[in-house]
Amino acid sequence: MTGVPILKLDRITKTFPGVVANENVSFEVGQGEIHALLGENGAGKSTLVKMIYGVQKPDSGEMSFMGEPFAPSKPSEARAKGIGMVFQHFLLFEALTVYENIVLGLSAAEAKTGDLRQRIIDVSTTYGLKVDPDRLVGTLSVGERQRIEIVRCLLSEPKLLIMDEPTSVLTPQEVSVLFQTLRRLASEGCSILYISHKLEEIRALCSKATVLRGGKLVGSCDPRQETAKSLAEMMIGATLNKPERELPEPGEIRLKVQELFMESEEQFGVDLENITMAVRAGEILGIAGVAGNGQTELMEALIGERACRFGRQIQLDGADIGMAGPRERRAMGMCFAPEERLGHAAVPGMALWENTLLSAGKTNDLARGGLISLFNANRFATKVVDDLKVKTASVKSAARSLSGGNLQKFIMGREIMQSPKVLIASQPTWGVDAGAAAAIHGILIDLAKSGAAVVIISQDLDELFTISTRISVIAGGYLFPSQPTEELTVEKLGLAMGGRAKEIEAAKHAANAEPAGV
Ligand SMILES: Nc1ncnc2c1ncn2[C@@H]1O[C@H](COP(=O)(O)OP(=O)(O)OP(=O)(O)O)[C@@H](O)[C@H]1O
């Protein structure tokens, strides 16, 4: 580290009712340093960066920025000092252009300086972040949308850029472009505070890491000198065991989808084009793809939120279920864990035990004849919390009070513990730390071993390679025929995920070649 640190935290403490999110955390970020903030779910990373960005205030402790005392009470104050933040979920309007979105995100003073359109073009060219100011955001891929957020931050020439899990939505090729941009920014003196659960990426990118556990700082290191395993073990304070994917020979087809065409109901949605697949008992089919390529629409069709035209387009153990709704499908032995945890997979304001009723009410005898069994619901919720090691004050806590990763663990546990015949999960370990991800992967493998057919829709290729028996790519609403995991490489998948029109067209024409296993 050279000279005065750009950011210094001194004994920062922040508590929420029943939880100490950060306790006496002190560390420094040097100028031009790419600094990782690591920790398991609920360790306090987001709370800490929210205080730096002025979204929350510490209860005690001090911060200084460029040698001056610093206590932002709102994000605009942090931005005025030179701090930019790219959030995990982008705050963009789909029906507006890139230019309009950028203007909306800037303060009046920032928006007025110079010719903004030209500055957008200059910044995007300088940093290799191609954006077209006149494109509608709704027509852009997730990777392109992230570029807008980064360009928006760079327009105010930040001295510190905070990034919260920036790569979870990118293809491997996009990740390498992002890393080039970040390295260039760092070489120009901009510091980067980088939160991610992807430890190999941390090793490739960051020169310093601060590790939090249970809200406390437990160590710092140079991640380049560590392995992903040693970093994970520093985070969890225990030895990490990777799950083994040894599955029996596949059995009968449990889930079959054939010739499924479905027009999207959303303005910028993706139409499903001739989806055909079959998943057997004991198999885990991974569906790779960049977000926005039909995954949401496929999930809606698979879980019955949108009915198919014909019942036979989706079959469960040979029975036509294409026209059945989610409840009927659940009653027949399917379970689902959709991607959006708050609002879709769980009701934010409801307690955890109440959230079990949403999906496990019937299957696990939590409610019968309109009467809720408080005892059974509490017991089931407590078992999910204990088995998945969900960090929460109690099962009476509201879903929204859990950290993102902990809520994800709870939802996955709630579904898996119903012992479904078919489980369909989207992004099962999104934002989940290495220890918990290994636990969820282990349970998914056990579920398949017990004879379930499992479908995992994920953008995380490491995850798909760890657990899937076969992998397909979805691009432009078309599902490429699946291939055994052993025959695939990250590069091959990454190219297909890029959704290159020519290849998709070629594959569509060759589509009478049925996916393996059908
Ligand atoms: N607004 C809030 N109300 C109550 N508790 C909260 C609130 N925000 C965070 N917490 C709690 O503070 C702790 C730290 O959460 P935080 O979101 O900072 O963790 P994290 O390290 O970012 O986790 P993840 O990797 O899962 O995102 C958690 O126990 C969480 O439940």
TrEMBL record:
<dbReference type="GO" id="GO:0005524">
    <property type="term" value="F:ATP binding"/>
</dbReference>
<dbReference type="Pfam" id="PF00005">
    <property type="entry name" value="ABC_tran"/>
</dbReference>
<dbReference type="InterPro" id="IPR017871">
    <property type="entry name" value="ABC_transporter-like_CS"/>
</dbReference>
<dbReference type="InterPro" id="IPR003439">
    <property type="entry name" value="ABC_transporter-like_ATP-bd"/>
</dbReference>
<dbReference type="InterPro" id="IPR050107">
    <property type="entry name" value="ABC_carbohydrate_import_ATPase"/>
</dbReference>
<keyword id="KW-0547">Nucleotide-binding</keyword>
<dbReference type="InterPro" id="IPR003593">
    <property type="entry name" value="AAA+_ATPase"/>
</dbReference>
<protein>
    <submittedName>
        <fullName>ABC transporter ATP-binding protein</fullName>
    </submittedName>
</protein>
<keyword id="KW-0067">ATP-binding</keyword>
<dbReference type="InterPro" id="IPR027417">
    <property type="entry name" value="P-loop_NTPase"/>
</dbReference>
<feature type="domain" description="ABC transporter">
    <location>
        <begin position="255"/>
        <end position="501"/>
    </location>
</feature>
<feature type="domain" description="ABC transporter">
    <location>
        <begin position="7"/>
        <end position="239"/>
    </location>
</feature>
<comment type="similarity">
    <text>Belongs to the ABC transporter superfamily.</text>
</comment>
